[in-house]
């Protein structure tokens, strides 16, 4: 059933007439007689279905399916969305939500694609072209007031299928340093979705950024998973994932088993997100709402955080929407403490797509048992991590008192009035501003020297603070350190250089 969720429209099927016998006569490698093309035109109005399915009856004997599409872009007044339409394809196994039929998606990044047994356009899955009803899917996510006129051209090439594609999945382990802090970027794009970097370029960029691991998160497809093996190495753990791009926000599925694909065809109101979150978690992966306040169309997060394992509070170079994400996350920490509930750790990723976006700006520094997918996922899940703008930023953050010590993501239990010293040692942020934030807001602010290195110690108790976390900010544009506990028309702070997950402080006996 097409419309399992959301709004979907299925058009009349497109048929191809050629029988297998004819294909055998023309043979492989021929053109003209060996190909058949159909052109579909149509029009969508404002308020069109989220997904428009064009059934394509594929006969036996097809070795390649090729699709081209285009649509008009009438001029619209400033502030009114113009036409934009995504494309993808499902095979004879069907278009059911979370079904087996997914064969690729290129969003709005490409105007054509091809699939055969041995190869496919990036974003698409090579494999058998079996007879049955395939579906080209259009995703008109913005339709101009004048409507959208589209053309889809489908070409089948007949002949024997070539050798099968052999996936080259990355290993789940690299040469680590045992239990240690590992740096990694959990949100990266390639030519397999809307990035302009090849997988080779992304892996080289991760190495250049001094990262120990990276997660591949192309939009809505698993097609890159089968190529990462050759780019991984003893020095770089490559983890497979996906960025699920819905109409109500984006989320990262990190640590997906290679080849696993997660469906994106739902809105918040369909109430199926939890089902996909459980699928990811059940497979050992992590569910991470991405850039929750990104102002771009369909990017704002509307699924809530009940099913989130982490939240991406810092996405790419520091901007206003990141401030909002940190504020929301901080409020959730307070709520978790109050209700005695699970807390949700923060992470930060570059979301780099193309030059000049910087891979590793920012990235996570994770305390993991080893440099393996499982251990890195475990460290992130437990919040044993902090976020660094680059590898030049280093820090250590601890809380100690009553003869005990706790690190990032941990809990220090002590009597209500026992003094607790919270200590941050930091390097690499010249003139930076250190903020200690608790469930009562900013409780301490101190500037770093021009060298960028320093130690900040602040004393509290478990009765005064339920958690404490650290931020290190660059100076403001005018060179001043920024002022906490004030208000004004501008941001109070310079860009983030480092952000830690909290250390929890718990009163003994409570
Ligand atoms: Zn996104
Ligand atoms: Zn992204």
TrEMBL record:
SMART domains, alphabetized: POLIIIAc
CDD domains: PHP_HisPPase
Domain Polymerase/histidinol phosphatase N-terminal: 184-248
NCBIfam families associated with the record: CehA_McbA_metalo
Name of the protein this chain belongs to: CehA/McbA family metallohydrolase
Species annotation: Actinoallomurus liliacearum
